[in-house]
Amino acid sequence: MEKTNHLSIRTDKALHDKIQYVAAYEGRSMSGQILYLIQSCIREFEKEHGPIPPEDGK
Question: What is the torsion angle, in degrees rounded to the nearest 10, for the CA atoms of residue 34, residue 35, residue 41 and residue 47?
């Protein structure tokens, strides 16, 4: 099984409520929506700058 890491972030209520709304609209949990957004950001970065080597991603 792949090891997972925990990430905790703080947001104000308005931002929390909006991301929760978007997640529900997209049929995802909030955690799933945030993971989707992070993965999208990384894909865009790598498209512009090339793959991030595993050792640099730590």
Answer: -160
Give Cα 40 distance to the centre of its chain: 7
Q: Is residue 3 situated within a structural domain?
A: no
Q: Model-level pTM?
A: 0.82
Number of domains in the chain: 1
Range of the domain at 33: 13-57
Q: Express each pLDDT in 5-38 by its tens digit.
A: 999 999 999 999 999 999 999 999 999 999 999 9
Q: Taking Cα atoms as reference points, which of 56, 53, 57 lies closest to residue 5?
A: 57
